[in-house]
Amino acid sequence: MTYLPRLLASFLALGCPLVSALAFPGAVGFGSVATGGSTPFTVTSLADSGTGTLRDAVSASGRNITFAVSGYIVLQSPLSLSSSTTINGQTAPSPGIGVMGREVSASGKSNIIIRNLRMRQGNMDSDTGKSAVNFGKATNVILDHCSVEYGIFDGIDAVGAVNVTVSNSIIALPIGQQFGAHLETGPATWYRNLWVSAHNRQPLTKANTQFINNVVYNYQAAYTVANTGGLFSHDIIGNYFIAGPRTTSASDDYFQINANQKVFASGNFLDSNKDGVLNGAAANSVGSAVVLSSPWNSGSTGLATLTAAQAFTSVLANAGASPRDQVDAFVVSTVQSLGTSGDIITNQASTGLSNNGYGNL
Ligand SMILES: *[C@@H]1O[C@H](CO)[C@@H](O)[C@H](O)[C@H]1NC(C)=O
Ligand SMILES: *[C@@H]1O[C@H](CO)[C@@H](O)[C@H](O)[C@H]1NC(C)=O
Prior knowledge:
Number of helices: 5
Oligomer: single chain
CATH architecture: 3 Solenoid
Number of strands: 26
CATH superfamily: Single-stranded right-handed beta-helix, Pectin lyase-like
Strand content: 25-35%
Radius of gyration: 19 Å
Bound molecules: 2-acetamido-2-deoxy-beta-D-glucopyranose
Largest sheet: 14 strands, parallel
Distance between the termini: 56 Å
Helix content: 10-25%
């Protein structure tokens, strides 16, 4: 019986995680190796701390966390996750679960799954060095169907992070440095995300990267590598870049990508004219990068199942935590204007939404 090991070996050679190792059904990319926790823990209180709170839940490793309550948890200090944690926000009763006011951190931790959680730092946090999500030096982490808004340092800060997936998520309206996400080390997978109204870093990715079927709206700079000396490969497939009112130069859809980078770019579109209609043109010319004629990662083609136009429809309908709340509905509505609305903000209150801009949940 030599065929089984050979089959396994060929799976591994292809870079496909074995099905049994998937974080959850439908998990994709480098972070899908995460297995999270398995000890059941139910959150029964929206308080910041104490028995039955989310802070209590994440205080020990190995937990598989579900929710019997819904609404916002107002954090009084950063929420620091233990390794091997799964947060199943999708188990919360409608209208779902979110945290506001401080950072959610898995810094230095490993094996983390976060699903269907709204993470909105905002200016309740006076620490301008913190982000909505901190994956610094974290390993094997996956964020799926999450909503990351009002980050101050970054929306997602993931310097030194290994094996990361951010999928089906909204990363929008950062208010401090006005940066979407910063990842270094990798590898990393960004899949079917909606990036809205940031100055830059959508994402900044100094890593071997898959960037597939994302939508980026109202950027000043979108996909960025920051002219690093690092040698990285990037599969950039089927994404839609759309200029908005605050886009100063639509050609900064790809930004600071020098000849140290190798890029496979295919099926990407840019709609630069801010005319309220989705009518972009092909945009596969990426800075001075070395052009790859096929993806650097053998899994990328299999992930790129949507055209850029299909990604626009699918991502607008599905990205972020569900059910969709006021903040996410606001974000999506600005994208639907296709060039005529959207601002890059310094204070969440300037969205005009209730609850000082955090919306009601
Ligand atoms: C964790 O909880 C979720 C939601 O109840 C469940 O679907 C999943 O199977 C659990 N995973 C593990 C490893 O226990
Ligand atoms: C990253 O994932 C790969 C499998 O894709 C695994 O072989 C490797 O050990 C992981 N890295 C770390 C630091 O866990």
